[in-house]
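Spend some time on the protein that follows and explain the fold to me:
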Amino acid sequence: MKTILPQVLSDYYAAVNDGRTDDAAACFAADALVHDESQDREGREAIRAWIAETTQKYQPQVEVIGSREADGAFVATGRVSGTFPGSPVELEYSFTLNGGKISHLAIQ
């Protein structure tokens, strides 16, 4: 069974998996917030820098293996592989969408 994602999330994962940093960052609202690895990144430029850094450091590939809606957020479970210890791992990506863009992302 294929997981159905909102278009902006499909675009985000496709860009991340292809290493297209600018396209991945364009999926976020100008004032978006990302929380990952106990750090917050606020604003599209900071998020673009985070995407570039993690892409270079880990070369992540995300396969979405499940999704659900919870408390106004869209939660996707991804199997993430890359150049990091313990690869692959399963992570939860909790997205809040606003106006067709990602306004908040928390990765756990």
